[in-house]
């Protein structure tokens, strides 16, 4: 019988795949355990020696750090007519009139978005529409460079400089006290990053929901520790402020274009460039008087294809081309953080092998139950690896659930465990697509603005976006 020859081969293949995946998982588990241990130590130190002596500040208690703390908010927009008008109107309501101006970048061949922005700008001095010179879409960085040119022109005409540049997307939900907090800190650092809170549509508990699981831990632990270790700070592209002087210095070195149009993740790279060396990045988690964190909230993709497309751009830009473009640093802390950023592609490939090994295991178990084959036992070494990795997996799931619970509550914390499988599948698919995207870029294909369709919630949805935080705050 054919099974007499195939099943032994599958048995050996299954164990080899398990061994390879287990060894890779063990390396990743050690890395995560060290990082988690440092985070726990950091949190305990602040709780015992800082928060026990000083009362936690709220954003309302802060004053402006600079006498002229005007902020420019950059919003690049391509085919955003369904959301940009509501987003801008909410920004103008949330932020009191005064020391800010919103610059919205549109394209000549996107009349619907131009009309939506123009309608929102009617009667407002805090909103300026900027039309890019070329038809769209070019790249997000190119659109941002047009906004930078408009800001520099305004500074010359008004003989007055801005203190910082804030980035937002066309679907963002902003906090009323965001500008006060950013204005207070932007004079102290090259980059100030606020937490990002993914929200999900009710119809997408699994696809959109996995973003919440990832960002809860990313902006509750990893970014906090990144600043604590003194490593450079990547920008999330929304809810972040760049010091105007830092951008001007970079602009002088890049022919007036601080945003790199050749990068697939220009926001990530810009943050690292501005905060490496002696420059500083701040990741701030601060509540208002109502107990809510000052953060940027937005709805992430709720369809599989959109999620894969978005995450493939992140992987290609950070894990693949970021390696080529940014290289490595002399300091171990910086290199450690960059290695953690860039392991996404390898992790996805290892996960794919692990899932194939699980499928083979199920096939072999069925064959054994039917009497076609007698499975060979795993080696003692592989058995030990499997036990260690199982323990590490339980720890990772419990820790992630704690962050999700602090942000979204018990139901989402419980859902985050099975949602890990969904996240892994999306990341595997995104990694394969990212490799293709990166390969095409190597042979000369231009960088394109791969954006997903956005939507803005109605008033009832916005009122519900008030999560309470209890993990990882800092003053």
Automatic annotation (TrEMBL):
Membrane-related topology note: Multi-pass membrane protein
Phylogenetic placement of the source organism: Bacteria, Pseudomonadati, Pseudomonadota, Alphaproteobacteria, Sphingomonadales
Membrane-spanning residues: 17-42, 346-375, 381-410
Keyword Transmembrane: yes
Annotated source species: Parasphingorhabdus flavimaris
UniProt key word Transmembrane: yes
Pfam name, any one: Glyco_tranf_2_3
Keyword field: Glycosyltransferase, Membrane, Transferase, Transmembrane, Transmembrane helix
Name used for this protein in its record: Glycosyl transferase family protein
């Amino acid at each position: 019988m054919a099974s007499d020859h195939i099943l032994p081969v599958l048995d050996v293949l299954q164990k080899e795949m398990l061994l390879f995946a287990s060894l890779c998982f063990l390396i990743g588990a050690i890395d995560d355990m060290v990082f988690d241990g440092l985070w726990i130590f950091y949190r305990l130190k602040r709780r015992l020696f800082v928060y026990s002596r000083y009362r936690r500040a709220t954003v309302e208690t802060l004053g402006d750090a600079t006498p002229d703390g005007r902020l420019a908010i950059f919003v690049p927009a391509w085919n955003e007519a369904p959301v940009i008008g509501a987003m801008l109107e909410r920004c103008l309501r949330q932020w009191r009139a005064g020391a800010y101006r919103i610059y919205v970048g549109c394209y000549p061949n996107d009349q619907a978005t131009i009309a939506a922005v123009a309608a929102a700008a009617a009667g407002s001095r805090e909103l300026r529409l900027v039309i890019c010179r070329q038809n769209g879409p070019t790249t997000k960085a190119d659109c941002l460079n047009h906004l930078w040119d408009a800001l520099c022109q305004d500074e010359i005409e008004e003989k007055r400089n801005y203190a910082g540049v804030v980035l937002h997307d066309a679907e963002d939900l902003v906090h009323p006290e965001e500008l006060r907090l950013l204005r207070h800190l932007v004079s102290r650092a090259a980059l100030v990053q606020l937490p990002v809170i993914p929200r999900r549509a009710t119809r997408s508990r699994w696809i959109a929901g996995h973003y919440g699981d990832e960002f809860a831990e990313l902006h509750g632990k990893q970014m906090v520790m990144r600043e604590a270790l003194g490593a450079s700070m990547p920008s999330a592209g929304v809810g972040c402020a760049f010091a105007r002087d830092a951008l001007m210095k970079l602009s002088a070195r890049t022919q007036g274009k601080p945003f790199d149009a050749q990068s697939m993740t220009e926001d990530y790279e810009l943050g690292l460039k501005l905060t490496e060396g002696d420059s500083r990045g701040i990741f701030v988690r601060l509540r208002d008087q109502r107990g809510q964190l000052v953060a940027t909230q937005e709805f992430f993709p709720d369809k599989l294809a959109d999620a894969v497309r978005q995450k493939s751009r992140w992987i290609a830009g950070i894990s693949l081309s970021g390696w080529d473009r940014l290289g490595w640093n002399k300091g171990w802390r910086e290199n450690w953080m960059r290695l953690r950023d860039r392991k996404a592609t390898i992790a996805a490939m290892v996960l794919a092998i692990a899932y194939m090994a699980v499928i083979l295991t199920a096939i072999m178990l069925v064959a054994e139950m039917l009497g076609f084959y007698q499975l060979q036992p795993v080696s003692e070494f592989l058995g030990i690896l499997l036990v260690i990795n199982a323990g590490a997996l339980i720890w990772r799931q419990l820790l992630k659930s704690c962050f999700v619970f602090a942000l979204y509550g018990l139901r989402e914390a419980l859902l985050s465990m099975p949602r890990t499988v969904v996240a892994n599948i999306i990341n595997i698919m995104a990694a394969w697509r990212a490799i293709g995207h990166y390969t095409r870029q190597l042979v000369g294909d231009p960088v394109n603005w791969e954006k997903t369709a956005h939507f803005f919630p109605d008033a009832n949805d916005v009122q519900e976006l008030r999560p309470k935080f209890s993990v990882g705050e800092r003053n």
